[in-house]
Write a structure and sequence with these properties.
By secondary structure, the chain is mainly alpha-helical. Helix content is 84%, strand content 0%.
Length: 64
């Protein structure tokens, strides 16, 4: 995962815990997870729209 080992992840989590505190860290994680989920759904939604619009364009060209 991004070339990070276990020790590096532990150090990063320790620094984040020190900076934000134990009470704020779960809220930050929840917000980060929610934003990643929304990003994934928006990207997949755009791909679905493109995929569904392409056959209609092809059908219109074939009928003409």
């Amino acid at each position: 995962m991004f070339g990070l080992g276990t020790q590096e992840l532990i150090i990063i989590l320790g620094i984040a815990l020190f900076i934000f505190g134990a009470k704020k860290l779960p809220e930050i994680g929840k917000g980060l997870g929610k934003s990643i989920r929304e990003f994934k759904t928006s990207v997949s939604g755009e791909e679905e729209k493109e995929a569904s619009s392409q056959p209609k364009e092809i059908d219109k060209e074939n009928k003409a």
